[in-house]
Amino acid sequence: MAIASSANAAVAQASSYTYDFKTFYDTSTISNPFDTKTLSYSVASMSIKDITGGVEISLKQNSTLFPAKTTSGTFLDGLWLNGDWGTVAAKSGTAASGGATFLSLPTIYKDGGYVYNGSIGFAGNGITEGSTSVFTIKASGVSAYDFAKSSNVPMIMLTNVGGIYNTFLSGGKVNFVGTIAPQIPEPSTYALMGLGLVGVAFVSRRARRAA
Questions:
Q1: 201 by DSSP, 3-state: which?
Q2: What pLDDT is attached to residue 171?
Q3: Cys-Cys crosslink for 155: which of 29, 80, 182, 184, Cβ 3.0 to 4.6 Å?
Q4: Which pTM was predicted?
Q5: What is the pLDDT of residues 79-89, one digit of tens each?
Q6: Regions of the chain where pLDDT drops below 70
Q7: Taking Cα atoms as reference points, which of 43, 39, 47 lies closest to residue 19?
Q8: In terms of DSSP H, where are the helices of the chain?
Q9: Which residues of 21-52 are buried (b: 16+ CB within 10 A; e: fewer)?
């Protein structure tokens, strides 16, 4: 449902995904609203995984050096997603609420030409630096893959942003898009790879001796 080019390559079907949020729409360049910058660090991370009856989403705002307007730091105050929505329920951390648009139509227009069919808001000022919000979305057919498919790029909003990004038009708000983080193999995977290499070396050695 995003009409801009996807931030993700082809997405393999899986039961869980992890996202980093490093790329943001640079509000210091008002003349070019499509101008983006990519940080060397992630201001937030999100995991989405299948659970019985739907998905569980964990969204954390990392403690970073991204400029804040006040000493309170920045706040993560919104999340936009595309997918098959259901009932949103807070589980732990900063309370979350929201859900699909009317008839789940893609009617929320955001930076970069992205259009979304649902959003999540967070209690108070939002998720503070170092804090997490965990919530569920439950309904028949709701899955992590449906929210993670190649055309479905999540977006978050940071508020109380300072420095050159706090302009009259931005109002101290900056939007980031998420990309799927590279998966780190489990220790058991490394062990199997090691055994495989040992086996190859053993067979190769025997073949050389037989020759």
A1: helix
A2: 94
A3: 80
A4: 0.84
A5: 999 999 999 99
A6: 1-9, 183-211
A7: 47
A8: 144-148, 187-210
A9: bbbbbbbeeeeeeeebeeeeebbbbbbbeeee
| Nearest to 178, CA basis, from 54, 65, 80, 75 | 80
pLDDT at residue 208, rounded to an integer: 58
Q: What is the pLDDT of residue 10?
A: 80
Q: Which residues contact 206 (CB under 8 A, 6 or more apart)?
A: none
Residues sharing a CB contact under 8 Å with residue 208, sequence separation 6 or more, in sequence order: none
Strand 127-128 versus strand 75-81 pairing type: antiparallel
Closest CA to 180 of 34, 19, 3: 19
CA distance 81 to 8: 14
Q: For position 89, what pLDDT does the model report?
A: 98
Q: Which amino acid belongs to residue 28? A: S
Summarize the chain as % helix, strand, coil (round to 5).
20, 40, 45
From 94, 160, 176, select the one nearest 127 (Cα to Cα): 94
Residue with tokens 């979304």: 116
